[in-house]
Structures are given as structure tokens and as C-alpha cells.
């Protein structure tokens, strides 16, 4: 799935919480990593916190993102942030303009609200992936897989191992992301349509009661009555601390339907070696 060629410019933004200034060295590392891939990074002027956790107003951050979408020289956009604030920009985005200037947009965690909103409003593919993985603990593998997948027309970063929890096959369009953050779209026009979709869910933090209540909300929204399958990603806190009941047991209990296919992967989530999954892309397992 080649998205980029050497010499392409790519935008770097922070649509959620602003970064600490202590991240400047990391951003310089990212700049160099992208340059080594042959890309030309163009960094937003509003990456870092300038007041509390804020790196500008919602409108200012949305304008920066829109400018990158409208700039024909920018071939893709990567968000390097996370936290809690990303849904604040949604009302300031012009989705018609985005639809007319489609280009790859990447983000994870709290950016689940943006990548799903963009998909739901434009039918554009977006990418659940954190570009900072290129400078993380598994940088060598990540750089190789990123290059293979998005610059050489391979698929290594999109191919993940999984095990069946129930069922034996699923096929459909993927929506979802961080299960807590995605729920911020509930009741808004930005929530994706779950009818006949495959929902992907993962979580960095959250103990058993939180996972139980979040998944119950998805059930009460009617999500599990509409989807054709569920992909569970990494649930970092629960799995690290070996909490019980585990996420598989909780999900099966709340979904309450053995006919819905469910798979579990530990290769998509907040870990530094995480794979990418395409929101709006078709998957067959």
C-alpha cells in the first residue's frame, strides 16, 4: 500500500494535549528518522504546551490541521499527541474541504476521535498508528515495516498475529480505536456507523471496572447488535497487572452473543512495536 515517495513532504501536528518541551529532543529524532526515510517533515508551530496542557485553542489547532490538508505539497499528516483534548477540534474542521483534499492522516489513542470522525464524515481511510514508534524501543523493526508498507507497497505493518476468542471468520470495514476515547463521539454526528462493521478496541489504562462500564456503554448504544465482528487489541494496564476477569472474559460476558466473531491481538495498541490498522479499510480474518 504505497502512500509516500522519497521527497514527499509530511505534516506533523498535535491535535490533543500539547507536548512537554522535554519532548523537543524526541521530535528532533523523529525529524531525522523521517529524513532518513526520504521524507521531508513539516512541523506545526503549535506542538508544545504554552498554557497548562494546551498548545493553542481548539480553533487554532483545527486551522493548522486544515492548512496541512489544503497544502498540495503535504502528502500525509501524522499526529504525535495523545491525552484528552482531541474532540475539541471537531466542530472547527471543514469536512467538505478535507474530502476534496484527501490525504493519509495518522494518529492513535485520543486521536481515535479524529480519525473516526474524518472517516464518518468523508468516507476517507485514516490510520490508527503513532509515528513516534519510528524512534521508540523497536525503532529498527518499525522503520523497516513502515518503509515496506507505505513506501514500497508491502503490507508488513498491516499484518498482525491474532487468536480466535469465538467464531472462525470475519470480514468487513474497520472502525474504532481506543475504547474510552471513541465513546466521546457517542451521541454526536461524528460517531461512525457500526452497521455491518468490524469494531477494533484497545486501551492503555483502565482496570476491570472501567473496562466493564465502557463495554457496557457500547452495548447500550447498540454497537454489538450491529457489528459483524470484534477485534480486541492490547489492553496494557489490565494485561501488565494480570487483572481478572481478563478482557476476553469481560467482552464475552457483555456482548452475550456467541455468534459474533471475536479475535484478540497483542500487536495493535500503545506498545512501541504496534502495528497499524486502517479505519475505513476492509479486513478479512
Automatic annotation (TrEMBL):
Keyword Hydrolase tagged: yes
Gene3D superfamilies registered for this protein in UniProt: Class I glutamine amidotransferase-like, LD-carboxypeptidase A C-terminal domain-like
Keywords: Carboxypeptidase, Hydrolase, Protease, Serine protease
CDD domains: Peptidase_S66_mccF_like
The enzyme's E.C. designation: 3.4.-.-
EC top class, as a word: hydrolase
Molecular function terms, GO-annotated: hydrolase activity
Family: Belongs to the peptidase S66 family.
Protein name: S66 peptidase family protein
Source organism: Candidatus Clostridium helianthi
Amino acid at each position: 500500500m504505497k502512500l509516500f515517495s522519497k521527497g514527499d513532504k509530511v505534516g506533523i501536528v498535535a491535535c490533543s494535549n500539547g507536548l512537554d518541551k522535554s519532548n523537543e529532543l524526541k521530535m528532533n529524532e523523529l525529524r531525522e528518522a523521517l529524513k532518513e526515510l526520504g521524507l521531508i517533515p513539516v512541523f506545526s508551530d503549535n506542538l508544545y504546551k504554552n498554557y497548562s496542557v494546551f498548545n493553542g485553542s481548539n480553533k487554532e489547532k483545527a486551522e493548522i490541521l486544515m492548512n496541512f490538508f489544503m497544502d498540495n505539497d503535504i502528502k500525509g499528516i501524522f499526529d504525535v499527541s495523545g491525552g484528552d483534548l482531541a474532540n475539541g477540534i471537531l466542530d472547527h474542521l471543514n469536512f467538505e474541504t478535507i474530502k476534496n483534499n484527501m490525504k493519509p492522516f495518522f494518529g492513535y489513542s485520543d486521536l481515535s476521535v479524529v480519525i473516526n470522525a474524518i472517516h464518518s464524515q468523508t468516507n476517507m481511510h485514516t490510520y490508527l498508528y503513532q509515528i513516534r514508534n519510528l524512534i521508540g524501543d523497536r525503532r529498527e523493526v518499525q522503520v523497516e515495516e513502515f518503509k515496506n508498507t507505505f513506501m514500497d507497497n508491502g503490507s508488513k505493518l498491516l499484518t498482525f498475529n491474532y487468536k480466535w476468542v469465538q467464531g472462525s471468520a470475519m470480514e468487513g470495514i474497520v472502525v474504532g480505536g481506543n475504547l474510552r476515547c471513541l465513546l466521546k463521539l457517542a451521541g454526536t454526528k461524528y460517531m461512525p456507523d457500526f452497521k455491518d462493521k468490524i469494531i477494533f478496541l484497545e486501551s492503555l489504562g483502565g482496570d476491570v471496572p472501567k473496562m466493564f462500564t465502557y463495554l457496557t456503554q457500547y452495548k447500550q448504544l447498540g454497537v454489538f447488535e450491529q457489528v459483524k465482528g470484534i477485534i480486541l487489541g492490547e489492553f496494557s494496564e489490565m494485561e501488565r497487572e494480570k487483572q481478572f476477569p481478563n478482557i476476553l472474559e469481560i467482552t464475552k460476558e457483555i456482548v452475550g452473543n456467541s455468534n459474533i466473531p471475536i479475535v484478540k491481538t497483542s500487536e495493535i495498541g500503545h506498545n512501541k512495536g504496534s502495528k497499524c490498522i486502517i479505519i475505513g479499510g476492509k479486513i478479512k480474518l
